[in-house]
Task: structure prediction
Amino acid sequence: MIEVQLDLHNVAAAERWLVNIGHRLTDFSPVFRGSFKEAVKQFFRRQWETEGGEGGHRWPPDSFATLVQRRERGLTSMKPLWATGRLRESFTAEGGANVFSAQATLMRWGSRLPYAAKQQATRPIVPATLPTHEIQEFERVLMAWMTRGEK
Result:
């Protein structure tokens, strides 16, 4: 048998804790600028390392013509979406062509490179549905913010 008894002695401390949770539920921007942003960057790094596999669907290989064009331009990478590294960098690092903004209940992350949207159509950089383990990681980070104020 397990018996659990709770006795709340410090009601004022509990009230302060609940007020803090209430404030954090209205403004997620600190965690969006901290550990949530890092979790998003890690997801996109894994997307590139697995050639889309992290998001659930590996990217199709580049066509022979694309590979020939790369060689002619002196580019050595044969992996999809790795030609110059600029697209990857725009999703995995801040600055440059990366788009990042954080508001109270909205975070945006992406690329301002003009060819990013075209690539999304054939090689989903951002999957239509995130895999369960990614959703769980994002939830873990947000719960740590809401309950403990961990940024």
In short: The beta strands are 98-102, 107-111. Residues 68 and 75 are 10 Å apart (CA to CA). Helices lie at 11-24, 29-32, 35-49, 64-72, 86-92, 116-122, 132-148.
